[in-house]
Amino acid sequence: MRQTVVAVNAHPDDEAILMGGTLAALADSGLRVVLVTLTRGEAGDANTTEPGARRMEELRASARALGAARVLDLGYADSGMGPGTLPPVSGRQRLHTVPVPHAASRLAALLRDQGAGLVLGYDAAGGYGHRDHVCVHRITRAAVALTPGVRLVEATAPREPILRLVRAAYRLRSLPGLCRCFAPEFTPKQWADSFTPSADITHRVDVREFMAAKRGALQAHASQAQAVDGGSSTMATVLALPARVSGLVLGREFFVEPGRIGAGPPRPQALQDLAAELV
């Protein structure tokens, strides 16, 4: 059996944005890639009579684009973006209400069952701070701690350039057709602690060779590219980027390996080197 890489995500489409190129590269190298989603993304799917069903179909299409061997759903419900607690979906608990030890025990059993050698999770900030992403960070760390011999790296992005970009875009938000994805209550301060400081990133992966697969995975999530309240979704904005700009913006992916922070600057292609140890 090929060695297995398990990518743990909060919602369908998360696998494509911060780690899609890396997953495609790992699959191309001969590793077995398994995509695990903790929720079906119900809160982001308001256009179907069966919440989450379309998003799971899109996740399976994304998996095919990336070369992933399998998609697994841990079965919790999407917590949504707001501060309140939504009611359960078909009896399933919202992810942010689930005790971490309980979810971690289930995820650890899945990792053992799949023969995971390398696990991809999220950084401590949960990327941009979505509460389900923070839950994924905590649950994945706890699950790996219960699974000896499994190595963990956490998807992220360098905080400082992203914050500069967000601030610049926010200043230009009044221009016609630009930055309509900002909610009325948004301020750049909300992203001040997002992602990971550049100095703490341990792995930098050049995925430009796999941009076709990454864009295919992004395009699979068509429901997330639809206009929201007359504006543009983040996914629509990403997919509208010209190929050359897309390569510049999305052509490198970043990871933190717990225990290696402060060990020196990230090495190019380090994650592929890490995965090669599993072959």
Q: How would you describe what is shown here?
A:
With 279 residues, the chain is an alpha/beta fold. It has one domain: LmbE-like (Rossmann fold). The chain has 10 helices and 8 strands. The protein has helices at residues 14-17, 20-28, 53-66, 100-114, 131-145, 159-171, 211-220, 234-239, 243-250, 270-276, and strands at 4-9, 32-39, 70-76, 116-122, 151-156, 203-206, 252-256, 267-268. The protein has an 8-stranded mixed beta sheet, with helices on both faces. α5 (131-145) links the parallel β4 and β5 (151-156). α3 runs antiparallel to α7 and α4 (100-114) crosses α5. It is globular and about 50 Å long. It starts with a strand and ends with a helix. The mean pLDDT is 87.
